[in-house]
Amino acid sequence: MAKPTTAVDPNYTFTPEELATAFQRYRTELITMPMFAMNMAAQHMGVRTGIRYKEHLHEMKGNFQMGNYDKYKLGNGNVQIVQRTLETFFGNCIEPIDPNSIVHSLWGSDITKGDALKNVPFVKRVCAYIMAQLGENMFNEMWTAKHDPTNTTETAKWFNGFLAIEDEEIENGAMSAEEGNLHILPEAFTAENAEDLIKDFYWGVAGSWTGADKKLRKQPLKLFMNDTVKHYYEESYQHNHGALPYNQRYEKARLEGTTVEFVGLPNVPMDYLCLTPKNNILTLWNQRTADETFLVEKSLNSHYDLDFIANMFYGEQYESINKEMLCVARLAESDDDQEGGDDGDETITVKGDVTVSFAKAVDDATMGTEYAGQVAITDPAGKNVTYSSSDETVATVNESTGAVTLVGAGTTLITASFAGDTTHNAAQGSYALTVAAAAAQPGQ
Asked: Could you report the per-residue pLDDT of 193-234, keeping only the tens digit for each?
């Protein structure tokens, strides 16, 4: 009896064995796909590989002063050795796959027109699609994840995101206004106050906050914020300063008067700022040992399905939380870390989730031909999204409409980001666009 195959088109058939073989053959490439899906944030962060469970770092702190000579002097520089732990969490994913559903998700109605597939094995594209979806969920939880070993089904409970790391340091007293690495925002960001609040966070407020440490300010810095807060800053700047001939669009890439780079991301919480050098805010991976496996096997539960099996390590950490390396701002009303705070009942607003998707997760186009791009689909419908392209040497995209302009041959990730609102959490979705070079004309 012939072995079963999954067939959508005579040119694109694959067996469970072929999928499993593809995962092994392309393991080195596929293992980086979650990184690729997280690139919107990861390009602004340090990356450490080879971290399997825990690795310890040590930092020396102290206040050393040179004073006038005194032979009886015995200094007290309060020398401390502070240990930081880089920790990755081992997680797995086991999900049934309906091969035909994946094929149609990837190619939609154009499955028989996939000229761009001729140079890439089809099963490799299926594997890459699966891995990219894992990365999308990891991106969405980078700040808000909180490790809960009793929960084995949600990415949000797999590792500790940056907020959970900060919460522990705040509880231990290692992050506070007194330590100089935590600022309490007096009010929520709006289009009217964003410029003043961000500048006050960086430079300080007379009598209440000294600002980011001078040694921190001397370094090349990233200022992480929600992309809506970045938009508020631009609107606030326009309101405060009026029209300027050289800045008609008010797109601010840096904090005025500094070299601090704005990093506006949809997965960063509202009313929150994180100022740090790129090499201090880390994503942690293993990617070196055999216990990270990515397999596709015949399903144990259905003759028609496959099982996708993935095991991997991932974590996040600040290499240092010293005020010379990190400063964070949070909204007063949302923090439990303030002295004298109200220990009474809290009102907690539970927000709903939004999904952002496209009709096709992979699309292709050819230079010299018309290509309009895809419009994002949101559920609930009607949510406003902002579009971006991961490689503008391949294609650019109108941030409001999603219209694509082809630039050169290659592959880029077109992402639609929902910033979140008072009722729903931030989310994003992407599709991979492969642009082929223009076909040679006869006689050339």
From this structure: 999 999 999 999 887 788 999 999 999 999 999 999 999 998
123 or 421, which is more confident: 421
User: Do β-strands 377-379 and 386-389 pair in parallel, antiparallel, or remain unpaired?
Assistant: unpaired
Task: Provide φ and ψ at 239, rounded to 5°.
Answer: -65, -40
Residues in contact with 166: Cβ distance below 8 Å, sequence separation at least 6, in sequence order: 175, 328
Helix (H, G, I), strand (E, B) or coil at 202: helix
Residue 122 neighbours by CB distance under 10 Å: 22
Helices (H) and strands (E) in the chain, counts: 10, 22
Are 37 and 138 in contact, with CB atoms under 8 Å apart? yes
384 inside domain: yes
Q: Taking the C-alpha atoms of 162, 164, 170 and 173 in order, what is their torsion angle to the nearest 10 degrees? A: -100
User: CA 59, CA 80: separation in Å to the nearest integer?
Assistant: 8
Determine, yes or no, domain membership for 375: yes
pLDDT tens for residues 137-184?
A: 889 999 999 999 888 888 999 999 999 999 999 988 889 998 999 999
| 115 pLDDT more than 70 | no
393: pLDDT confidence band, cut at 50, 70 and 90? very high
Same domain, 190 and 137: no
Burial of 191 (0-12, 13-18, 19+ CB in 10 A): middle
Residue 374 is predicted with a pLDDT of 94
Cis geometry, peptide bond prior to residue 380 (ω within 30 degrees of 0): yes
With a cut of 60, say whether residue 339 has pLDDT above it: no
Q: Among candidates 358, 328, 356, which has minimal Cα distance to 417? A: 356
Strand stretches in 286-426, DSSP E:
294-298, 306-318, 327-331, 355-357, 362-366, 377-379, 386-389, 395-397, 404-406, 410-418
Q: Which domain holds residue 247?
A: 174-278+324-334
Shared domain check, 290 and 258: no
CA distances to 159, 293, 389 from 249, in Å:
39, 48, 19
Q: pLDDT value at position 249?
A: 52
**Are 186 and 253 found together in one domain?**
yes
- Whole-angstrom distance, CA of residue 190 vs CA of residue 116: 45
**Overall number of domains in the chain:** 3
Tokens 């919107």 locate to 40
Element housing 12 (H / E): strand 12-14
Among candidate residues 338, 62, 295, 30, the one with its CA nearest the CA of residue 184: 338
